[in-house]
Write a structure and sequence with these properties.
Number of domains: 1
Number of helices: 3
Structural class: mainly alpha
Largest sheet: none
Number of strands: 0
Shape: elongated
Distance between the termini: 23 Å
């Protein structure tokens, strides 16, 4: 049980690092006035949100029950 919490903690820190990277990329694009990359940054952010939601989802599927 303790190992599972440690694994979730390291995953959480990894996702936090991804969010910090997103903020850095967005702010850097704003500083150099490169607005063409805004959509790519947004897709990166949405992708990380979806992946985090899938990884930390606590729902059990029907396959897990059987």
């Amino acid at each position: 049980m303790h190992q599972k919490k440690a694994h979730q903690r390291s995953l959480s820190l990894g996702f936090l690092t991804c969010y910090v990277l997103f903020l850095t990329l967005t702010f850097g694009s704003f500083l150099v006035q490169d607005y063409d990359n805004g959509f790519k940054d947004f897709l990166y952010f949405v992708g990380i949100l979806v992946i985090e939601n899938v990884v930390f989802s606590t729902k059990t599927s029907d396959a897990d029950v059987l």
